Structures are given as C-alpha cells and as structure tokens.
Amino acid sequence: MTQDTDHLGRPVVVVTGMGAITSLGQGQADNWKALTSGASGIRRITRFPTDGMRVAIAGTVDFVPVADMSGPALAQRLAELVIEEAVTEAAIGRGGDFPGPLFVALPPIELEWTQRFALGAASGANESVSYDDLLRAAGKGGFESCYRRFLFGSVAEALADRFGTKGSPIATSTACASGGTAIQLGVEAIRRGETDAALVVGTDASVNAESVIRFSLLSALSTRNESPAAASRPFSKDREGFVMAEGAGALVLESLASARARGATVLGVIEGLGEAADGFHRTRSSPDGKPIIACMRHALADAGLGPEAVDYINAHGTGTPENDKMEWIGVSAVFGERAGSVPMSSNKSMIGHSLTAAGAIEVIFTVLTIRNGLLPPTINYETPDPALPVDCVPNVARAATVRHAISNSFGFGGQNVCLVIGAAA
C-alpha cells in the first residue's frame, strides 16, 4: 500500500478503529478469543416467556442490562459501546467531536407488544384502541420518552449528538445486508471526497417475542431448543434455519492520506464494493443466483482484483437450506474450479444472525482474520452436504495467510452486498 489512490484514482479507504459486541462478549479481544476457540453464544431465551413458542433460543447480549429497555433503546446502547471502542482505538473523535458523518444500519423502529399493551391500557380504551388514543396516552403517564423514540426514530440522531458527527446522520435498513450497506455508504462518501473520515455502525436488538414469532412463522429459524449451542449449522446437511441474535459493530473509516497524516494505525483496507438486488421474492433468492454472482463480481472489479486473489470468504452462511445453497451457487460461479478450495466459514455458527448488524460485525471479524492469520471455524459441521462441497473450516480454527478476503451479506428481499477487504500493508 504505497499510494493514496486506488486503481481508479479514488482515495484508498482504510479502517483505523473497530468495536464489537455480540453474544460471545464485549470488545474485539473477547469476541476474537471466543470466535477462534469455537465457542457458541447461543442460549435459551430468559428475557421473556417462551412457553408455547416453537423457538426458545437466541444469541442474546444478556450482559448488557435490558430491564425496562425497548429494542431500539438497547440497539442504541449497543451502538454506543462499540462506537466508544472504535473511536478510542482510532484515536479520533474522542470527547464527542468526530470529524465526519455517521452511517447507521438498524432495524425498523417499532412498538413492541409490551409497549402497545401499556399504551392501550393508559388510553382507557377497551377492545378498540385508535391512533388518537395512543397519541394521547403517549403524552402522559411516563410515556414521553417512548413517544419521542417512535415519533422521531431517534437512534441515529442520539448517536450523532453524543459523538459529534458532522451533517445529518444517515440511517439505513436493507434487511440482513444493512451493515454492509452502511459501510458501502461510508466508503463512497470518502471516495467522492466529501469527507476524510466516516463513522459506520450496525446495531440490532430485535430479540423480542414478536420478532421471534414472525421469523418462526416464515420457517426460517432453527428449533433445536434443547441444544442451543448446536442449533446454528451452516453448510451442514442437517441445517434447518438460522438463530436470531443481537449485537453491534462499529468502524472508523478514513482516507489513507488522512490516516497517514495523523499517524494512525491502519487495520485494514476496504478495497471493493459490490451491490445487486433482484426483487425476486420477499425471502427467497433468485434461483439462478445471478444477483449474488453479480454482487461478488462487482466487488472484485471495484477492487481491481480477480477471483484468484481471494484467500478467504466470510460467508453470509445463515444455516438455512435456501441461503447456504444459493451462496454456494454464487461462489462456484465466481470462483469456478477453485470454489471448493477457497476457505469459507460462517461466524453465524457461533454468534447467530444479528440481522442488520451482521454485515458490520462480520467485516470486523474479517479484518481480524487478516491481521491475525487465523481463520475462524464453522462449528457444528458434523454432516457434510454433498451438494455443498465447501471448505467451511470445519469446527476448528486454521492458520492461514490472508491478503484479500470477501465478506458476503445477502438480505431478505434480494438485497445483496459484498465487500472486499485487504491487508493493511
């Protein structure tokens, strides 16, 4: 990395700070240690009653207090924790004065059942509760903060105020690709010369009864309630669904010139961006795999690399029969005869699927993979699927030299993002 511009004459964009929190723990160090040892953060849900529910497991962040805290409030708290870690490592923007814009990936902000019931009771209504009833109830009886939260969608605004980012914060929600989308937006802003630095965060705290039931009704979730740690089984023949999880990841992105000028440590390079949407179905991918294939090819072309340069793939790897099959179709088309020999492991086998936060968290883990020369495993891989001849780094981490890696994020609704990550030097 000797030039400040890339093969297309754009500013090289680098990572100078990262922060992570998942069901495995808080901070990069704890997460990396657990991830590479093959630990699982999946456990039985204790936050709310699960009696009668088909799914009773999730990758919850139980070590962060959640009493009397809504999903959006917890998502904001998780984001605050990872941003603090990232700006501290980058040594930029501390003290609430970050010198660039904020890009946030987060789920839709919705009233949860408990809040609806409480508002309904406060409204004085019986079987029928009108919108006007809820608005009146929200303005009294201690519901003011709830009203502000859902009136303004305040997570991004609150984060921007606390960390002093510049301009209007950008909040994005592109399903399971959201974290990747947020990184893409930050990289593009730097490449266009609009800013020298950007703060990017993906956060999600959607483990509540309604969300679990919704995904369960789609038959998307694993029902291995009696063995939570073994529930997420990407690429295995006996995979049956993903495990919902929560967490957050934050990255400080800078132009290489800016990072050099202030003597910052470069952790990794965001070399290429790929994006493709198909609109085929609300949950399924296009059967021909063309959008996934295009997404990876766009990212490699943007990075100025060929498939032969890729040493590792951080798979989307949800563990659903559909997703794993489509990801393999995409990888086999892009990498050809080499597809089965490119290591491709799934962090979700251990942390679960953190939805809108997943893309950001997995890019952080990809940077750590490159820096440490160690590939995280795909755990619970016991029954190979002959239709998916993937080198998923089964069950045990593996030492490897990685110069360039791909991180895939494929979301419901056909929203696909692929990022190419490179070594710092």
Automatic annotation (TrEMBL):
Residues 10-423 form the Ketosynthase family 3 (KS3) domain. Keywords: Transferase. GO terms for molecular function: 3-oxoacyl-[acyl-carrier-protein] synthase activity. Pathway: Lipid metabolism; fatty acid biosynthesis. GO terms for cellular component: cytosol. The keyword Transferase applies. InterPro entries: Beta-ketoacyl_synthase, Ketoacyl_synth_AS, Ketoacyl_synth_C, Ketoacyl_synth_N, PKS_Beta-ketoAc_synthase_dom, Thiolase-like. The keyword Secreted does not apply. It comes from the Bacteria. PANTHER family: 3-OXOACYL-[ACYL-CARRIER-PROTEIN] SYNTHASE, MITOCHONDRIAL, POLYKETIDE SYNTHASE-RELATED. Belongs to the thiolase-like superfamily. Beta-ketoacyl-ACP synthases family. This is Beta-ketoacyl-ACP synthase II. It comes from Rhodopila globiformis (Rhodopseudomonas globiformis).
